Amino acid sequence: MTEEARQARRTTVAATEGLLAIPPLLVGEGDDIVEVLQRAAAQPQTRLIGVVDAASGRLVGVIPVVRLVEAVVARVAPELAMAELADAEDVARFGHDVETRTAADAMLPPAALPREATLEEAYRLMEARGLSGLYVVDELGRPVGYLDLLELAIVYLHALEAGGDDPAPGRRPAS
Amino acid sequence: MDAPLAAAIFLATYALIASDRLDRTAVALLGGLAMIALHIIDQEAAFAAIDLNVLFLLAGMMILAGILRRTGFFQLVAIRAVKIAAGDPVRLLIVLSLVTAVLSAFLDNVTTVVLVAPVTLYIARSLRVSPVPFLISEVFASNIGGTATLIGDPPNILIGSASGFGFVDFLVTLGPPVVVILGASLLALRFAFAAEIEVHAEARDRVLALDEREVVTDPRLLRVSLAVIGATLVGFLLEGPLGLGSATIALLGATVLILLARVDPVEVFSEIEWPTLFFFVGLFILVGGVVQAGLVAGVADLLLRITGDNQAVATIGLLWLSGIASGVIDNIPYTTAMLPIVERLGHNGLQTEPLWWSLALGASLGGNATLVGASANVVVANLAARAGHPISFRTFLGYGLLVVACSLAISSLYLWFRFLG
Q: What are the residues whose beta carbons fall under 8 Å from the beta carbon of B413, sequence distance 6 or more?
């Protein structure tokens, strides 16, 4: 592993989030799912919605945009969702989607890291959870930023370029 | 020395399977292999005890159901059933249950209930009623419907192979009582659930808006699958004149469908429930060891003494014993263990035909008693819980005992008048 790659892995989340200026999108647990989808449509660059507790402001869950879409499709065009079901796992998820009415119904467990966490930790968390982003939280668990997978990729890309990796055949290396 | 050791291995294996603490396939294989490793049975005899007819029949039907599942067929049939019922919840309960019963008679129970469930969950949400009455009724219907044919339930496949009874024998003998049992059960459930499924008229319009054409993912594959499965069923009906075994017919159908469907065989074969097949392998070797050790003879002789060598007592007794046992433990290991016992009872002078049918009815119908009595029950309970509608053991037990008592009572009368009167 090159020194640039090592440095990239140790780069903190705080130094990375904001590279693409993707703002967090936060909703309340009791917010209607249609309203949540409308807000997501108005801010399409944020692919992971944060759900916060109204009283404490703490992050209590996350909703990937695709999950939101599945919940709405299950209500509006159930045949479309039913056609793709292959096993009991799919059916259970469909059954849950049919019942989804609020952000709390749709949310997954929170996916968050503190500002001082490294990109390596962030990548592992996103990979393990199958998410394309995560929330940066303070010591009280309140969201203070948003890290997208692309921002993380940009840091690694810079490391790749700085490390002088061989370009594809016939192509000049990036300057 | 062999007999006590074989008994200990057998009981320990079955206890572990019943406890659900460890994977049942691994436990069954370990038990069977222990019989070989401890020289209770040698490898040659152990492998000879594996009933390949059962394994290949199961595999063939798994392939057929697996390919059909990709087409949206089950969802299509369920939506059509919803339209036939015109959104009336009581009619919905009955029609969806009937559809589940018929499909389960010819295809895998678990696949049937799982793929009818999404339509059930959707219409229940639309009607603003709990899906639990519908799901419970469908589970009961799948186990009852599966009792009617050779291929409807794994215990029947086991019994068919051991007894030599074919598809037509099962249909002709068990079809009539199953129809009566299904009717009586649905009538009872209709009254039991009536208060829970009342809806307003305007809610019904929402469910009638479902378009069944939209769930069909591959119309060509659907047509081809139905044609091949239909031909396979005809093959089962003609297995006698054709001189072919049921496993050959099932595999023939599966292979033809793989070729005509132009699906990736690797994908298809990966969908075979290999753990289930190896579960059977383990059980066959385990029971083979028990037979080799002479335990079966002893148990059969004991049963003969208890029943006083009386055909009627043995037949009805086996029915209720099987019904009760299957409600508590998996009916596959129970049936596998009972096969050599029934054969032995035949050698000792009892007529085996009534005993085989008694075992078939009891082992399949008894699975409705509890939430863990059959695979379909467990799977539906899990997905209902994840969909936000948990079905408690106690709730299911209340309805399950009613249905099983009714089923076994009707079966007793049927066996009496058909074979014993």
A: none
In a domain, residue B195? The reply is yes
Confirm whether B97 is domain-assigned.
Answer: yes
Nearest-CB residue to B379 (from A81, A84, A88): A88
**B131-150 exposure pattern, b = at least 16 Cβ within 10 A, e = fewer:** bbbbbbbbbbbbbbbbbbbb
Tens digits of per-residue pLDDT, A89-133?
889 889 989 889 999 999 999 999 999 999 999 999 999 999 999
pLDDT digits (tens, 9 = 90+) for B38-67: 999 999 999 999 999 999 999 999 999 999
Q: Structurally, how many domains does chain B consist of?
A: 1
Question: Which tens digits make up the pLDDT trace of B126-150?
Answer: 888 899 999 999 999 999 999 999 9
Q: Whole domain around residue B283: which residue ranges?
A: 2-48+72-216+273-420
ipTM: 0.82
Task: Quote the CA–CA distance of B88 and A97 in Å, as a whole number.
Answer: 24
Q: Report which of B364, B307, B287, B379 is spatially closest to residue B331, judged by C-alpha positions.
A: B364
| Contact yes or no for B125 and A99 at CB 8 A | yes
Q: What is the pTM of this model?
A: 0.86
Best residue of A72, A82, A101 to probe chain B, by most B CBs closer than 10 Å: A82
Which residue out of B121, B123, B128 would a mutagenesis test of the A interface target, given it has the greatest number of A Cβ atoms within 10 Å?
A: B121
